[in-house]
Specification:
Layout lengths: L6 H38 L23
Length: 67
């Protein structure tokens, strides 16, 4: 027992297909923008800096190695 597809069916099918395609494009663009913003936020963060090492104090005279 076969049924014929009516013009009303094809009209609804076309509308739903167009809405689905449009929604897919909008969501893909939104997720892409969201991912780019997250990556930019990571890049702009400066890593925590370690304390700078201190240089040893310089003496005005040299210590003799021989006793």
């Amino acid at each position: 027992m076969g049924t014929s597809l009516t013009p009303e069916f094809w009209e609804r099918f076309a509308v739903l297909l167009a809405l689905g395609a449009g929604l897919t494009c909008v969501l893909a663009a939104w997720f892409d923008d969201f991912a780019v913003r997250l990556l930019r936020r990571r890049v702009h963060r400066t890593p925590p800096q370690a304390p700078t090492p201190r240089r040893p104090e310089r003496h005005s005279h040299r210590v003799s190695v021989h006793s």
